[in-house]
Design a protein that fits this description.
Elements lengths: L11 E5 L2 H4 L11 H6 L17 H14 L4 E5 L2 H4 L8 H16 L3 E7 L5 H5 L7 H17 L5 E6 L1 H9 L11 H24 L5 E12 L8 H20 L4 H7 L11 H4 L5 E14 L8 E4 L15 H15 L4 E5 L16 H20 L3 E7 L18 E3 L6 E3 L1 H11 L4
Parallel strand pairs: 1-2, 1-9, 2-3, 3-4, 4-5, 5-6, 6-8, 8-9
Antiparallel strand pairs: 6-7, 10-11
Bound molecules: beta-D-fucopyranose (FCB).
Length: 442
Amino acid sequence: MFDRRDFPQDFVFGAATAAYQIEGHRVGGAGPTHWDSFAATPGNVAGAEDGASACDHYHRWPEDLDLLRDGGFDAYRFSTSWARVMPDGKSVNPEGLDFYDRLVDGILERGLAPFLTLYHWELPSVLADNGGWTNRDTTSRFGDFTRLIAEKLGDRVARIATINEPWCVSWLSHFEGHHAPGLRDIRAAARSMHHIMLAHAEGVEALRAAGHKGAGIVLNFTDVQCGDSEGGWSEAAARTDAIMNRWFIESVARGEYPAEALEGLERHLPKGWTGDMARIAAPIDWLGVNYYSRALVTEAPEKPWPSTGAITGPLPKTQMGWEVYPRGLSSLLNRMADDYVGSLPIYVTENGMAWADEPCDGKIEDTARIDYVAAHLEAVRRSLSHGTNIKGYFYWSLLDNYEWSFGYEKRFGLIHVDFGTLKRTPKASWHRFRDALSDGRR
Ligand code: FCB
């Protein structure tokens, strides 16, 4: 079982959320986003559900922050909705900005450290109309948004991440079509893969100009393995690793995109892309790593590039169907330090599991989640003893919430939310965290 005392003195324990997934987007003057229209299109989202009401965190945030504090946590990772503070992508909605102002004060008042993510996916529809991330201009607009947030909140928020999971923003959303805007187009994918990294660069530049010293990015990593031969490696696995993992970390850490990905994508990249690479590789102050599972990749020569498929592995799975594979977390954390970022502070900014939790006599005994967390924290410890400079761990998620294309069915929270009454009920995992963290809270 896990215990705070098994981690370094300054190790930070937190929980994470994202604006569109919890706030309730219909209130407070927020503008339409591409997730609203994606969800309104049949077949994209389970039950065609959207984030209009979500957990009503917009009104219930004091209760949610109390639960975070009472769980013994040190930090809260949240995001600022671009469409809430700039409903038309340009002009400012003071009500939206004030909401985050109060939220940040509320976080600090409870002795929690705020970790802010600027872009966790709700692109204002007006910008989507202009091509969204396939249009270079969106990156400048993101710079404007960053300046606004840095000016309003930057003095009180020590760590600001530019983008959450650029792979999901680009490949998953423009090649696989699973997330908004739901495209399946290799050219759009390539361009968005570059522009999202350029947006990161714009964000870092804006933060630096505002004097901010805690700029980072949150990347998601999957432990890519060969599905054709156990323990082997293949070109298909190498291509997938290049697209899912290396594209993002190598552009930030080295100013390069991997050759295995460029072989299929270069001809679709915007002209002059190499001229942006030095900006993308500007130094950052910390790296966020999101980790959930591994991928078993197969060769699929009958398909066009990248000519890959996937098989389902034999390990126990979460409600998402994702294999529970804690070993991948330690190997990816070690790989980050050894191959890319050296001693730069790394935070596990997301890790967690969905389970079909329902209260029984007012209790939710999510022992599978407790085991999942314990195994992944053990993986973090292994990586710490390898010498990796891991500074914290954020469970995804504080609350059951809107799980994107899966709607409200997949429950990741430490706190159960009844989406009819919006009642919050801490699960056994929340109690377990409280027992593990409350002693010796900093
Ligand atoms: C990550 C997202 C987060 C949540 C988890 C389950 O990809 O950053 O919003 O959906 O997956």
